[in-house]
Amino acid sequence: MEEQVSERMVIRASPATCFQILTDFERYPEWAADIKAVSVDQRDADGRPTEVTFRAAAFGRSTSYTLHYDYSGAPSKLSWEQVSGDVTRKLDGSYEISPSDDGSADVTYHLVVDLKVPLPVFVKRRAEGRITHSALKELKERAER
Q1: Which domains are present in the chain?
Q2: How many other CB atoms sit within 10 Å of the CB of residue 19?
Q3: Where are the alpha helices (DSSP H) in 7-117?
Q4: Phi then psi for 71, rounded to 5 degrees?
Q5: Exposed/middle/buried for 108, CB within 10 Å: 0-12, 13-18, 19+?
Q6: The predicted structure's pLDDT at residue 132
Q7: Which is it for strands 49-58 and 35-43: parallel, antiparallel or unpaired?
């Protein structure tokens, strides 16, 4: 069963800084606690990563998944769809980044998750909320440094 979760956070950094951090996938293990390894598998004509494989700690175990990134909304939106995953059927989402009145970034993270293994709804919802909250909190810490 797939569900969408969203969370929004204001980050005291420019939208351009947030977008740059979000698209520098090889550095995710430096600041995203659950990401253990990243490999860029494909790039577009502009050199931007379009297919990226992650190894992460999720749902109480190690998991691997490959995402395909879409830059058509850049730099105000970065979206992705899962290409493959060992625990997830779907791990699709986006970051929407817009400037606040004071020049900060207003970032909204949308995530749609569908697991291959059934979990009780409350466990799944807690995990989804943790993913979006942690991702935004860690992005905020990295961008505001």
Answers
A1: 3-144 (3.30.530.20)
A2: 21
A3: 15-23, 28-31
A4: -100, 10
A5: middle
A6: 87
A7: antiparallel
Condensed to tens digits (0 to 9), the pLDDT of residues 40-90 reads 999 999 999 999 999 998 756 789 999 999 999 999 999 999 999 998 899
Whether 29 and 53 have beta carbons less than 8 Å apart is answered as: no
pTM of the entire predicted model: 0.91
Integer-rounded Cα radius of gyration of the chain: 15
Mean pLDDT of the chain, nearest integer? 92
**Which three-class secondary structure state does DSSP give residue 144?**
helix
Q: Which tops the pLDDT comparison, 62 or 127?
A: 62
Task: Output b/e per residue, 32-55; b: 16+ Cβ within 10 A.
Answer: bebbeebeeeeeeeeeebbbbbbb
Q: Regarding beta strands 105-115 and 77-85, do their DSSP bridges make them parallel or antiparallel, or are they unpaired?
A: unpaired
Write the single-letter amino acid at 26.
E
The backbone torsions φ and ψ at residue 16, rounded to the nearest 5 degrees and listed phi first, read: -65, -40
